[in-house]
From TrEMBL:
InterPro entries named among the record's database cross-references: Aminotransferase_I/II_large (IPR004839), HisP_aminotrans (IPR005861), PyrdxlP-dep_Trfase (IPR015424), PyrdxlP-dep_Trfase_major (IPR015421), PyrdxlP-dep_Trfase_small (IPR015422)
GO-annotated molecular function: histidinol-phosphate transaminase activity; pyridoxal phosphate binding
UniProt keyword annotation of Transcription regulation present: no
Listed name of the protein: Histidinol-phosphate aminotransferase
Record-linked CDD domains: AAT_like (cd00609)
UniProt-listed Enzyme Commission number(s): 2.6.1.9
Gene3D superfamilies linked to this entry: Aspartate Aminotransferase, domain 1 (3.90.1150.10), Type I PLP-dependent aspartate aminotransferase-like (Major domain) (3.40.640.10)
Organism listed in the record: Methanobacterium formicicum (strain DSM 3637 / PP1)
Lineage start: Archaea, Methanobacteriati, Methanobacteriota, Methanomada group, Methanobacteria
SUPFAM superfamilies listed in its UniProt record: PLP-dependent transferases
EC supergroup of this enzyme: transferase
Pathway this chain belongs to: Amino-acid biosynthesis; L-histidine biosynthesis; L-histidine from 5-phospho-alpha-D-ribose 1-diphosphate: step 7/9
GO biological process: L-histidine biosynthetic process
Pfam families attached to this UniProt entry: Aminotran_1_2 (PF00155)
GN (gene name): hisC
Residues in Aminotransferase class I/classII large domain copies: 33-355
Length: 366
């Protein structure tokens, strides 16, 4: 066997949510009827304009993607309220942008700060490059960032600080003033992950004009309904974006993903409706789940809700298994750093699916 590099040898594999096919096989279910409430996807489906554009362009996939994606950057810039030079687009979602950040910044031994529980992929990507995680604290009881724990974690070796708002999996927001305080306390790159910002109505874009160490991370996987097309983007000072472009794989954004992104941005009605339906589902799920005295349900600003299930007498694995037997996937959060074995995350679905979920939950808990 060839010698694998140490950082890869030591890596805990990333545990993704379970696939429909996997679940259908395990529980003898019809894959088409499985209700997906585990991966924070968009229950509305993609924009019809995006589907049409893909269908009309399928015959073009024998040629390489365009390396010039200026019109997509222009559209993202006007959607986000920034300029195209400040944008980098990734073809494996926001996850690719994270990987390019690590490649651009990390020398082995550099530190980065995360606030568990948060998005686990930061650690997965950065550790491969020899970066060392330093843990700040998310105050789960109050569902907010413990600002001091971040300030205390900063050292001369800190290269990157991750702030996830709304935070995945807890759904809490980070106060803008806290973000300012952190930006002013360090020269490290402060990555503000706004994958879910549309569901909260709050973003931090205006801080870009003041801080050149702010990096905003976004995705087309959530409100834009394109998780399967793998498109993400970052917004930062243009000089830093230039360095990232040296590293990013040139053709990672494939033709069909590019088209899907452009046409979805041309469909503001879809974006608005998709935001509103997810908020409606989130509010319904929050209200209905809060009626179960056995569950502790956390208020969320995103398209998912974190639930503490210890009052049910079951752990997250047991309760997720019971839901799965009924064809419903939720996220068992026991592999998330900062949470124990009693948490599940429930993503928004269609209203009919939400009702089905609540009924199944009733039958499990009674
Ligand atoms: C907080 C957060 N950031 C980034 C991502 C990555 O998104 P993408 O699908 O664009 O890779 C996710 C995906 O779930 C996420 O939850």
């Amino acid at each position: 066997m060839v010698k694998i590099k140490n950082t890869v040898n030591e890596l805990d594999p990333y545990v993704p949510g379970r696939s429909n096919a996997d679940l259908a096989r395990a529980y003898g279910l019809d894959p088409a009827k499985i209700i997906r409430m585990g991966s924070n996807e968009n229950p509305m489906g993609p924009s019809p304009m995006a589907i049409k554009a893909l269908e009309e362009n399928l015959h073009t996939i024998n040629t390489y993607p365009e390396s010039n994606i200026d019109d997509l950057k222009d559209k993202i810039a006007s959607y986000a309220g920034t300029s195209p030079e400040q944008i980098i687009v990734g073809g494996d979602g926001a996850d690719e942008i994270l990987d390019v950040l690590a490649k651009t910044l990390i020398e082995p031994g550099d530190e980065y700060i995360v606030h568990p529980p948060s998005y686990m992929y930061y650690e997965f990507t950065f550790n491969i490059h020899g970066a060392v995680p330093v843990y700040a604290r998310w105050d789960i009881e109050n569902n907010q960032l413990d600002l001091n724990s971040v300030l205390e974690a900063i050292s001369p070796r800190t290269k990157v600080i991750f702030l996830c708002t709304p935070n995945n999996p807890s759904g809490g927001l980070i106060d803008k003033q806290d973000i300012r305080t952190i930006l002013e306390s360090t020269d490290a790159l402060v990555v503000v992950d706004e994958a879910y910002w549309e569901f909260s109505g709050v973003n931090n874009l205006e801080l870009l004009a003041e801080y050149d160490n702010l990096f905003i991370l976004r995705t087309f996987s959530k409100v834009m309904g394109l998780a399967g097309m793998r498109i993400g983007y970052g917004i930062c000072h243009q000089d830093f974006i230039q360095y990232m472009h040296r590293v990013k794989p040139v053709f990672s954004l494939i033709k069909l993903s590019y088209l899907a992104a452009v046409t979805t941005l041309d469909d503001p009605d879809y974006i608005e409706k998709s935001t509103q339906l997810s908020i409606q589902s989130r509010d319904y799920l929050y209200r209905e789940m809060s009626k179960f005295p056995e569950l502790k349900v956390y208020q969320s600003w995103a398209n998912y809700i974190l639930v503490d299930v210890r009052g049910t007498g079951m752990n997250s694995k047991e309760i997720s298994e019971k839901l799965m037997k009924n064809g419903i996937i939720v996220r068992d959060c026991s592999s998330f750093r900062g949470l124990d074995e009693f948490w599940i995350r429930v993503s928004v679905a269609t209203m009919e699916e939400d009702e089905q979920f609540i009924n199944v939950l009733k039958s499990i808990l009674q």
